[in-house]
Design goal:
Elements lengths: L6 E9 L2 E8 L10 E5 L3 E3 L3 E9 L6 E8 L9 E5 L3 E5 L4 E11 L4 E11 L8 E5 L3 E3 L4 E8 L5 E8 L4 E3 L7 E4 L5 E10 L8 E10 L5
């Protein structure tokens, strides 16, 4: 008989005058799944904008995590090139100068493991008053699995180029490539509050970045 440590005992029963033990090979546990750190937030903004990023470490460690954020770039809320924040998985800052910023978040687990992720932010000058405007039209509610179509309506914009994006509040985000398409069809697969938006630039004024957005509530799909 093999050593019981190699098995898991299922039960014990009486067979005739003896006792029979029922064993099943103990399943082997697979290798641990490595945690992955991701950071979500905007990739573009205007001068003077307040921007927020959120970090997510999954699978979530069982032990406490220390968060450290560093933003380097032309200028933020303080007259220096970098600003640092610690303590939470969310980081908010005001950007005061156009240019490219680099964000680094470091998550240090009490177990000793260290994780890092980076993101970039391009800050554009505040558009002039005569740069035109854009609004997003479309449904403000829907369901998981339902195709939702949104349209960007511009005013005073010559030969516009569009970049669509969406953010799920407390969830993920996505940006689409620049194109001439003023519509976006989105089929959500996750319930929640979505912010669907578009960036627009004009051939006549390519330095002025316009933006419009719409908030959409997506409910869970109906069961069949």
């Amino acid at each position: 008989m093999r050593h019981p440590s190699a098995y898991a005992l299922l039960g014990v029963g009486v067979v005739g005058a003896g006792v029979a033990a029922y064993w099943l090979t103990r399943p082997r546990s697979g290798p641990p799944v490595p945690a992955v750190l991701t950071v979500q937030g905007p990739s573009q903004a205007y001068v003077g904008a307040v921007v927020t990023w959120t970090a997510r470490l999954a699978p979530k460690p069982r032990r406490p995590v220390d968060w450290r954020w560093t933003l380097t770039g032309p200028r933020t809320t303080a007259p220096r090139a970098a600003t640092t924040s610690t303590g939470t998985d969310r980081y908010t800052v005001t950007v005061y100068q156009e240019g490219t910023y680099t964000l680094t978040v470091t998550a240090t687990c009490a177990c000793g493991k260290v994780y890092r992720a980076t993101a970039t932010l391009t800050v554009h000058p505040t558009p002039p008053v005569n740069a035109g405007s854009v609004i997003v039209q479309g449904p403000t509610s829907g369901q998981v699995g339902q195709a939702l179509t949104f349209t960007a309506v511009t005013n005073g914009v010559t030969a516009p180029q569009y970049q669509w994006w969406y953010t799920i509040v407390q969830g993920g985000s996505r940006e689409y490539p620049w194109s001439t398409a003023n519509t976006l069809t989105l089929t959500p697969d996750t319930p929640g509050q979505y912010v669907v938006g578009v960036y627009v630039v004009s051939a006549a004024n390519p330095q002025a970045l316009l933006t419009g957005y719409l908030t959409v509530m997506v409910a869970g799909g109906s069961s069949s």
